[in-house]
Design brief:
Helices cover 75% and strands 6% of the residues. It has 403 residues and is mainly alpha-helical. The N and C termini lie far apart (92 Å).
Length: 403
């Protein structure tokens, strides 16, 4: 029997991965269902090199932008009347990266062997579960060009949000880096020369000056270790946890920071709404949509909320209760979804609240920029002022002793 790697969701909403033996993919899907698992992705583990592994370990994972451009252009070609096979042939020769172009060629070859488009996407390992599911719905309903257009619009808006967050954080990050470098330069180059004069005088050293001197000594003695160790630890965490898991943990941790945490929270909520609205608009049911969204949750908190919503739906309870109890999602979202659920217009309610929250995020980014930069300047100015006043107090004590 062959070995298959699988990714699935338990009844509780937990996302699991592993390996299982079976004669073919259909048999594996049946065995997973018997174990109470809902398969998301199943592929042959014994293939020496798959398209997905080439992307992950060769030229790197397919970028968010590449997948978005591929989706938009494929939708255009299909809407123009071109066949899927011809469209993929054209896109494989486009100016994508070598690895992504090879992936498109592999998917085209799989389709020519009789596989469906969504199966080829799933086996590539480069496309998220909700993307694959929407393509499957589009193929079944004969509306693939329209579904691709909806996916492209959703991804472009998500990319726009990411761009705003990056732009909002670039200048503050650069400011922090330069200021931190200046403080380290003072502590490593300036403080030691003053330290020799202060300690050589025999005068009592004030506690603040003693603290600054001890920090300077520590940086001189351990600075090289920190400079090498921190990047190595980060690389180790990424290797052990995986890039996606590491990003989710960092986002979850970043939510607790003032101002920046609020930006991360609002952006994650907008992404949640955008993906949910796109899935519902494509014809995917709410239970299936939540199941597909669980592996793509940007933070552990959002993942728990999605799992709780899915559990409430299965048990016939109020699926909006986890949203209302969560500290991440705004009350407006649960109210709008409640109205949409009662009126039978849930999809439109989700899309409408997404637009509202996206506009709110734009305003919040502008306000955050006006707050973050002065706060950083004041904080780092305070650090430099503390160092200077501490050393000056020690120098004054030396002069008093001389007098």
């Amino acid at each position: 029997m062959a070995k298959f790697r699988y990714s699935a969701v338990r009844e509780s909403g937990e996302h699991v991965t592993g390996e299982i033996e079976g004669s073919d993919r259909s048999m594996v899907l049946g065995r997973l269902s018997e174990q109470g698992l809902h398969p998301i992705d199943v592929k042959d583990a014994e293939l020496e090199i798959s398209a997905g592994s080439m992307l992950r370990f060769g030229g790197g994972a397919a970028s968010f932008t590449e997948i978005s451009v591929f989706t938009r252009e494929l939708g255009w070609l299909l809407k123009a009347g071109m066949t899927l096979n011809s469209a993929l042939d054209i896109l494989a020769k486009e100016s994508f990266s070598t690895s992504f172009g090879g992936l498109i060629s592999t998917m085209r070859a799989d389709i020519r062997k009789g596989k469906s488009f969504h199966q080829a996407l799933a086996e590539s390992g480069a496309f998220p579960p909700y993307y694959v599911s929407m393509i499957e719905v589009g193929e079944a309903s004969g509306t693939l060009p329209g579904v691709l257009e909806r996916i492209a619009i959703a991804r472009e808006r998500e990319q726009k949000i990411r761009g705003k967050l990056v732009s909002a954080l670039i200048y503050p990050s650069l400011l922090v880096t330069l200021a931190t470098g200046a403080v380290i330069f003072i502590m490593v180059s300036v403080v030691p020369s003053i330290k020799d004069m202060i300690e050589g005088s025999g005068a009592p050293i004030p506690d603040q000056a003693r603290f600054v001197i001890s920090m300077s000594d520590w940086l001189i003695n351990h600075g090289q270790t920190v400079l090498i160790g921190v990047p190595l630890v980060l690389l180790l965490l990424v290797a052990v946890l995986g890039g996606g898991t590491m990003q989710r943990l960092l986002r979850g941790f970043g939510m607790y920071f003032p101002v920046i945490g609020s930006l991360i929270k609002k952006a994650s909520v907008v992404r949640f709404c955008r993906i949910l609205g796109t899935l519902l608009q494509a014809g995917v049911g709410l239970p299936e949509s939540l199941k597909l969204m669980l592996p793509t949750a940007e933070t552990p908190q959002i993942g728990r909320t999605i799992a709780d919503m899915a559990t409430a739906l299965r048990q016939g309870g109020n699926f909006l209760a986890p949203l209302e109890q969560s500290r991440i999602f705004p009350p407006l979202l649960s109210r709008m979804l409640a109205v949409g659920s009662e009126t039978g217009n849930l999809t439109q309610s989700v899309l409408q609240v997404t637009d509202i929250l996206e506009d709110e995020l734009d305003r919040h980014v502008e306000r955050a920029l006006t707050l973050i930069e002065p706060a950083i300047i004041l904080a780092l100015s305070g650090v430099v002022a503390f160092i200077i006043t501490s050393l000056m107090s020690a120098i004054i004590s030396v002069n008093d002793l001389a007098i």
